[in-house]
Amino acid sequence: PLKAQLYVWFSALSLVTKHGGPRAKTGVWAAQLAACTVVRAAFQLVKMRVNEASVVHQNLGQVRAFVRTQGQQLALAAFLAILSNWISFCQQQLAFQWRLGLTRSLHDAYFRGTAYYEVAQGGKAAGAVMDADVRITEDVPKVVTSVAGLVVMLANGLLDMSIFTVFLSRSGRVGQLLGLTAQLYVAVVYVINNYYIPVDYAGITGPVSATMSKLQQDLNRAEQHACTIYALQGGQSEWQAVCRRLREAIRAKLAFFSGQHLNEAFMYFFTTSTFDRTPLFWCSFLYFTSGLLQMLVRQRAGAPRLLDYSASSPEVARGWGMVIRYHGSMVNIWLGAVTIAQAFQAVMLNYASIGRIQALFARLEAATARHPALLASPDSSLIQFDGVHVQTPTGVDLVRGLSFSVKWGESLLLTGHNGAGKSSIMRCLGGLWKVSSGSILTPSATSSGLRGVVYYLPQRPYNAVGTLAEQLCYPEPPPLALADEEELRRWLDYVDLGYLADRRGALTAETDWQQVLSLGEQQRLGILRLFYHRPRFAVLDECTSAVTGEIERRLYEVCALLQISCVTIAHRPALRKHHHQQLVLTGRPADSDGGFSLTPLGGAPAPFGTGCPAPPVHETIGEYLDRRQIRRQKRGEEAEALFSRRARLLGL
User: Fold this and answer.
1) Those residues with Cβ within 8 angstroms of residue 310's Cβ, 6 or more apart along the chain or in another chain
2) What backbone torsions phi and psi does residue 596 show, to the nearest 5 degrees?
3) For the CA atoms of the chain, what is the radius of gyration?
4) Residue 362 is assigned to a structural domain of this protein
5) What is the pTM of this model?
6) Looking at the DSSP assignment, which residues form a beta bridge with residue 268?
7) Taking a C-beta distance cutoff of 8 angstroms, is the pair 381, 610 a contact?
8) What are the pLDDT digits (tens) for 286-307?
């Protein structure tokens, strides 16, 4: 319906004007577009008058004047071609500024806090956005390009209709009526076309965007896991899955073409291909030609002179000039109306993209809202859950009434079977998941994620593309001191990764370390990153599953020396000796205990007080490694002495 189309047009315009970049730059290009559009319309009038003069000179046999008008027509055509190219360039620049502003607005909202994580939570649940990358990189260009085209085509069409309607009004009331009838004809064809041959733009454009997004995601997933797929001989299965997605995309594209084909064919047939055969066209032509005949009759010019081009005839020349002038004006009015109709139809083809961007903005606004359940700890030295009800974004209960606290200097071991909710509790702590009841006291009650006072170390640490020093300091830029190879090697030796500094380009080249390092090396680099940032609390989520027992022991002992409290998610009971208390999740939230139990442990280091000075990192870790080396050397000597004693006893 036209009402819905008006809403789509208004939504598209408001979307780009609200987020469309700096108003100064967009205003400059919009002003140039407006000026060029007015100049183009004016020179269209000049071109029509020159064409009229050319016909007059031709009928009068004025060769020099006729040649001069032909040269003027060529010059005008060249100027209008350059002007049209500049208008196209200004249109592209305006679309670029809108795209820049719209993309920046989406990026600011997407990377604010944990929004980039929350927008996709819930999977297929209502409101979840699984293809934000596609919407930002593909839907935004489509929308801004169509809106820029709408603005230019509207300006050209409205200006042409206005100027040539005024120009045509000089021919009398019948000329005015013909001009208004041409506009009404296009409007009636457009309305009939949309009401009797309707197009479900949401139904034909939405599946195209959705299927192409899923196809791209499948291809990206196959690329990321190519090694594992090859090892499992899963190439055939992945090929079948991609082919299935491709067939879905092709069917959606065919439905898109067939859905709009009849509508566009009807519009093109009645407004373009057969317009010169409509009664309106011939009525206009005959009306202005009849004016020429009347003039000749009044001046007693015979019909033979009307058809005799061998002799000069000022009456015939002026008459045909008038026909070209007014009939050409009527045709230009019709072309302006057709341009406006085509502009509206072009915007409707991006109906789905407009809705997808609006849905992404709505989801981002909801994701960046403050979590009412997160409260700030007064002295940044306490993590506390009080009656928290933990649920997945899809509404599955994991834990009910969860209550525990971890003071700075204490440590907690969180255990339970897979799917019991161990990592989910940490997502609630970081503000990634909202809680339906209870409150969470955190050292920093913001939605900025588990970083700062609380640092999160997952099983597979994230490594950005960059230098080795940037991996150590991520997400902060590396200091100048780490540009020195010896200083970087000193840090890497803390987790036995000093050999990485010997790799070619490790200090200067941008490398995808996610693909270069093994899981064990990535975990050791993540542990080193924890030492470097040195937060008060560290959430360790299975972060030692691929390292040796020595590195695992080093992690907990160095954290105690650096005054870092550990909240560990693990399965192995061997880690109990490094913690003060253990939280066990049973995975049965319907039970009377809510699906959890809290048990105190012994044997962990004593909590450090709030007044303890922060020990220096290098000296602390260096002394620890020296002591460990002395202990290893001493144990080696004791073992060697024991073997020698046993050998002597056996020899006796």
Assistant:
1) none
2) -155, 160
3) 38
4) yes
5) 0.69
6) none
7) yes
8) 666 665 555 555 554 444 444 4
